[in-house]
Amino acid sequence: MKHYPTYLQALGLILIVALFGVMAALLVFPFTNANSMLAIIVVYTVSLMGGIASALLIRKDFSFPMTRVDWRIISLGCGSVLSFHFLSDPIVSLFPIPDSLKEMTSSLYQYPVMSLLLIVLLAPLLEELLFRGVVLHGFLKNYKPSHAIVSSALVFAIIHGNLAQGLGAFFIGLVIGWIYWKTNSIIPGIIIHFVNNGFAASAIFFIDEKDIMKNLSEYFAEPWMYWTIVAMGGVVTFLSVWALTKKLPTGEEFFKVQTEKNDTVEL
What we know:
This protein is mainly α. It is built from 10 helices and no strands. The protein is globular, with a radius of gyration of 19 Å.
């Protein structure tokens, strides 16, 4: 018997999330501006909580693994995802910045408290419960770990809806997914996600709104300074991932693929 969700069921789950979002929008938008931060928070929260609740009901398991994890593993996870932002900047800067991301960035300055609530607290918690606690958890029960981690990270990247965020989201999904597989705990992912989003949102305290959408290279007077930062990001990313391979548990006993060797893996 297959565990929930399979690949196709994960697509169905995303549609359920979208459906809850549409229903929330229909209820909220008549009473407030569709672009208001309050409306965005309500629609976002209802859509993800609706998806999580539906998934838990379908799989008939309302628990999430919360195994205690060495703080050094969490620190290395944070180091790898933060440094990757600098390493990937030359590629990310090639992608156009979508209007939705510009509006969200602007809202950080206009409604800092509510925006930080959404980006730094709600998003890490709800997204980790959904994408790691439900989607990846089911994938790890059904498929090879490498396939499960990559595919769940890809879903996580696509759900962001733009290339500017997608590359970073994919890498974060890989790192957090790897740690989730090795530790059987949702806690590291929530903390790493929290630190990542907090790092990005903290820019409002140091950068003027008119400069916030500049590429990283524009903040440096000389090109060599920029490329030094990129290179340092690559070194820290590599060392953090390498150190994780040494610190993470070697056992794989938490997840077993529920198919016989000669069975065809179902979608």
